[in-house]
Amino acid sequence: MTRDTPHPSSPSPDAPARPDRRGFLRASLGSGFAAAALPVAAQTAIKTDSVGLLVGEVTIPVGDFGMPAYRAAPLGRTQAPVVLVVSEIFGVHEYIADVARRLAKAGCFAIAPELFARQGDPMSYGELSKLLSEVVSKVPDRQVMGDLDACLTWARGQGADAARAGVTGFCWGGRIVWLYAAHNPAVKAGVAWYGRLAGESGELRPRHPLDVAASLHAPVLGLYGEADPDIPLDQVQRMKAALAAGSPAARRSEFVVYPGAPHAFHADYRSSFRKEAAEDGWRRCLAWFRTHGVA
């Protein structure tokens, strides 16, 4: 097994030290769990090994900013298709890194960028309300789109096949999947796990998935829970109607709604995890990428 873990540049002397959350913070990107995500149901969390993979933290240049990311790729394979993994509000913690390794085991060059890095460290927050107000709410969609574009450019330079690019994401990241499928024509397919479809618009978030549904460049598979209180089924129906009246890629998009499943049913480290729905969704995710030339 080869492990490659280059690290981003050291912070300036004036940068504030990251607070210690009594072991909850990661020693490096992709390890540990965010304090705000606790308690972690460790007995159910899936652990994917890195045998046969190149894994670890990398730094991706975005202009003059070095964005940390977790990369997992098949060892020794060139021209592997790229899949961008967009995290929940908790950032790139152990669960997201494990998802990247699962994709790498399926033959993909997976990149999970820390898209909150400029605004703060989500791992350092113990209170969900503060994490949302002080970090997540301050991240502009335009910044996220540019960061994901930079990931594809970087992957191409690493020998991956960015012409066969997919994107998947969870919760906050699920919303981003829809937006990115409308933003970048290079994307071949997306899989959105319970991402919000509508919301208030503003300077940082001018549009939502319902607003861009008709102009998708790539078909998206939406995996949603029937019992999700944050995403009512009427929004799903509105999204289906918007897709049906949209671009060819939009019309090829599909939804699967799991009966009785709550929000975050794929998050195997949380009490919301639903094994049957999560496993079926993962099979569909890989099949969707294969069908559309990503995996």
Write structural notes for this entry:
- With 295 residues, this protein is α/β, with parallel strands linked by helices.
- It is 29% helix and 21% strand.
- It has helices at 94-105, 128-134, 141-157, 172-183, 209-212, 233-244, 248-251, 275-291, and strands at 2-3, 53-62, 65-74, 81-86, 109-113, 161-170, 187-193, 220-225, 254-258.
- Strands 1-2-3-5-4-6-7-8-9 form a nine-stranded mixed beta sheet.
- Helix 3 packs across helix 4 (172-183).
- It is globular.
- Mean pLDDT is 90; it is low at 1-26.
Total strands: 9
First-residue to last-residue Cα separation? 22 Å
Secondary-structure element series: EEEEHEHHEHEHEHHEH
Strand order, biggest sheet?
1-2-3-5-4-6-7-8-9
User: Uncertain spans, ≥5 residues at pLDDT below 50?
Assistant: 1-26
Radius of gyration: 18 Å
Shape, per Cα inertia axes: globular
Provide the fold topology.
Blueprint: E1 2-3, E2 53-62, E3 65-74, E4 81-86, H1 94-105, E5 109-113, H2 128-134, H3 141-157, E6 161-170, H4 172-183, E7 187-193, H5 209-212, E8 220-225, H6 233-244, H7 248-251, E9 254-258, H8 275-291
Parallel strand pairs: 1-2, 4-5, 4-6, 6-7, 7-8, 8-9
Antiparallel strand pairs: 2-3, 3-5
Helix pairs in contact: 3-4
Concise summary:
The protein is an alpha/beta fold and 295 residues long.
List keywords for this structure.
295 residues; nine-stranded mixed β-sheet
